[in-house]
Design a protein that fits this description.
The protein contains 13 helices and twelve strands. The protein has helices at about 5-20, 25-30, 35-45, 65-75, 85-90, 140-150, 155-165, 170-180, 190-200, 210-225, 260-275, 285-290, 295-300; strands at about 25, 50-55, 55-60, 80-85, 100-105, 115-120, 130-135, 135-140, 230-235, 235-245, 250-255, 280-285. Helix 6 crosses helix 8 (about 170-180) and helix 7 packs across helix 9. The longest helix has 18 residues, at about 5-20.
C-alpha cells in the first residue's frame, strides 16, 4: 500500500473516532485500532493531532466544547478513569463546573493525568457508582454527591441536592448505598452530606422521588387501597401513579417540583392535557403524604378507589 493511501485511511479512522468522542482521541486508542506509532507521531508533527494532555489529542484544532475537555481528561488518566466530583456535577447539570482543573477519579495509583487535571485515586469505584453520560464515563449522581461533599462548601452541596431533586434524579437510597461503599473514607464529607440531607428533609421537602413514591405506596397499602401503576406513560406523559380503570392520575410534588416557573407551567399544561383526555388528576405534596396521609386517603376514596 502506497504511503498516500495509508495516510488517507489513517485520517479516516482518526476522524471517525474523533466524531464519536467530542473531537478527541487517545494515543492508546489509535494504536489499538492498528495505527503505527510513526503515523501517530507524523499526525502530531503535521498538526493533524493537537496535544491536549500526554497521549491525548484534539483532531484538527483545539477549539473543543466543554464535553471534549472533560473526555480528554478522562482519557489522559487512563482506562479505569471517570469524570467525578465538581465536573461530574457539571455534566449531570447539578452545578456549574468552573474551577481550573478537571476532576477525574481512578483506581490506578500510577496515573496522574497532568497539571490541568485533579486526579482523585480511590480503592473503591464500584460498577454501581459509574455510568456514561454523553459518551463520557462519569460517576453516578449518587456517587457524585458523595464526592462533591469533600470538595465544595456546605451551601453548594445543598444547592446540588436541591437541583438533583428538581430534576428528579436524587435517590436517597442510592446515596446511602454509595456512602456505605465508601465507608472507609468516613470524614467531614460524609458528615456534611448526612447533615445536608437531614436539613433538607427537616424542611418538609421531598428527599427523593423514590422516597416520596415509597411513602405513598405504603400509605395506600396500609389503607387497603389498590396499588397503582407507577412511573408509566399516560397519553404520552410519564405520571407518578395511575389507576387506569378509574381514569385517575396522582402526581407527587416535592418542593422542587415548583422550583422554577417553567416546571410549574409544564405541570399545569400536562394536567390540562390529561383532563381534556378524560383523566382526573390529583396532586399531593410531601407534607400531605408524610404528615396528613388520612386526608390524602380520604380524597382517593371520594374519587372512587376502594
Amino acid at each position: 500500500m502506497d504511503p498516500q493511501t495509508c495516510t488517507g485511511r489513517a485520517d479516516e479512522l482518526i476522524s471517525t473516532l474523533a466524531a464519536r468522542q467530542w473531537g478527541v482521541v487517545a494515543r492508546r486508542q489509535l494504536l489499538g485500532a492498528g495505527l503505527s506509532p510513526t503515523i501517530v507521531r507524523d499526525g502530531v508533527r503535521g498538526g493533524r493531532l493537537v496535544r491536549i494532555h500526554r497521549g491525548v489529542y484534539a483532531v484538527g484544532h483545539a477549539r473543543l466544547r466543554r464535553e471534549g475537555w472533560w473526555l480528554a481528561a478522562v482519557l489522559a488518566v487512563g482506562p479505569q478513569a471517570v469524570l467525578s466530583h465538581r465536573d461530574a456535577a457539571g455534566l449531570h447539570g447539578l452545578r456549574p463546573a468552573n474551577h481550573a482543573r478537571v476532576d477525574v477519579t481512578t483506581t490506578d495509583r500510577g496515573r496522574t493525568g497532568g497539571p490541568r487535571i485533579a486526579t482523585h485515586v480511590t480503592t473503591v469505584l464500584d460498577a454501581q457508582d459509574v455510568t456514561t453520560v454523553a459518551g463520557i464515563p462519569v460517576t453516578t449522581v449518587a456517587r457524585t454527591l458523595v464526592d462533591l461533599a469533600y470538595v465544595v462548601p456546605r451551601d453548594h452541596l445543598t444547592k446540588a441536592i436541591r437541583e438533583a431533586e428538581r430534576q428528579r434524579v436524587f435517590d436517597l437510597r442510592a446515596v446511602e448505598a454509595a456512602m456505605a461503599r465508601t465507608a472507609g473514607r468516613r470524614g467531614p464529607g460524609h458528615r456534611a452530606l448526612k447533615e445536608a440531607i437531614e436539613e433538607y428533609s427537616a424542611l418538609g421537602l421531598s428527599a427523593t422521588r423514590s422516597f416520596l413514591e415509597d411513602a405513598f405506596l405504603r400509605r395506600l397499602r396500609d389503607a387497603g387501597l389498590p396499588r397503582p401503576g407507577v412511573n408509566v406513560l399516560v397519553e404520552g406523559f410519564q405520571v407518578d401513579a395511575v389507576w387506569r380503570a378509574s381514569k385517575l392520575v396522582v402526581e407527587l410534588d416535592g418542593w422542587a417540583s415548583h422550583h422554577t416557573r417553567r416546571a410549574f407551567e409544564q405541570d399545569r399544561e400536562r394536567d390540562a392535557a390529561l383532563t381534556a383526555a378524560g383523566w382526573r388528576v390529583v396532586r399531593f405534596t410531601h407534607r400531605e403524604i408524610a404528615h396528613r396521609p388520612d386526608r390524602a386517603i380520604e380524597t382517593l376514596r371520594r374519587l372512587g378507589l376502594s
